[in-house]
Amino acid sequence: MKNVNLLAVIDKEKCIGCKTCVKVCPVLAIKMEDRLAIVDGEMCRGCNACEQRCPVYAINMVKREQPVVVKVDVGSVDYAKIEDLCRKAKFHPEQLICYCTATRAEEIAAAIILGADSPEKLSLLTGARTGCKVECIQPLLRLLEAAGVEPQPPEGGWQWYGKTVTVWDISEEVKQKYASRGFYFDEDIKLLDRVVAAPLQGRSES
Q: Is 71 within 8 Å of 126 (Cβ atoms)?
């Protein structure tokens, strides 16, 4: 969930049509029209990536007249399905996966179950990945993959970082190679498996 208080506004007199803002927008809220960038105000999540990267300072973040709350209602989805998807992706449902917006795995899972099939759609619906935009692409991709979705990066975009290897992905060869150097991957896996399988805290189980 995210409270969106800001909106990107483009100065058409300064815009040079370089498309940098289009490429960095995590929710695809910016399009080109007559060789100038145009912001869809309803889609903008106020992340300021476009403002930070505009080479001619043609974008300003302004305060919205009315803040917008972006979230997916976890209660609108069968929670058993949410829990199953999260644990399949090796996340505890209540685990924070986007620290900037305090978005939990359960909300991302709910959005996927409701039909979101890309990081951009997940960001639009939940606000996740509209803060630093660096760390949370990983859990979004893992949850999508666990749901059987294989999204492709937007054409020309550069906001995706490759999926990193988790402790569950480490091969036996690598484990044995580094065992003598003080790395105990199997113990780490056991600990993390306990975290993933831990009982829910914020919900009354019936």
A: yes
Q: What is the CA radius of gyration of the chain?
A: 19
Q: Which CATH number covers residue 16?
A: 3.30.70.20
* Residues 127-181 pLDDT 10s: 999 998 878 899 999 999 999 999 888 777 667 877 788 999 999 999 999 988 8
Cβ distance 86 to 92 under 8 Å? yes
87 and 159 part of one domain? yes
- 96 and 117 part of one domain: yes
* DSSP 8-state assignment for residue 167: G
- CA separation for the pair 171, 175 (Å, rounded): 6
Helices 79-88 and 105-113: crossing angle in degrees, nearest 10, is 110
Supply the pTM of this predicted model.
0.91
Identify any residues that bridge with 68 across adjacent strands, giving them in sequence order.
4
Verify that 82 and 57 share a domain, yes or no.
no
What is the extent of the structural domain holding 61? Answer: 2-69
CA atoms within 13 A on the CB side of 146: 23
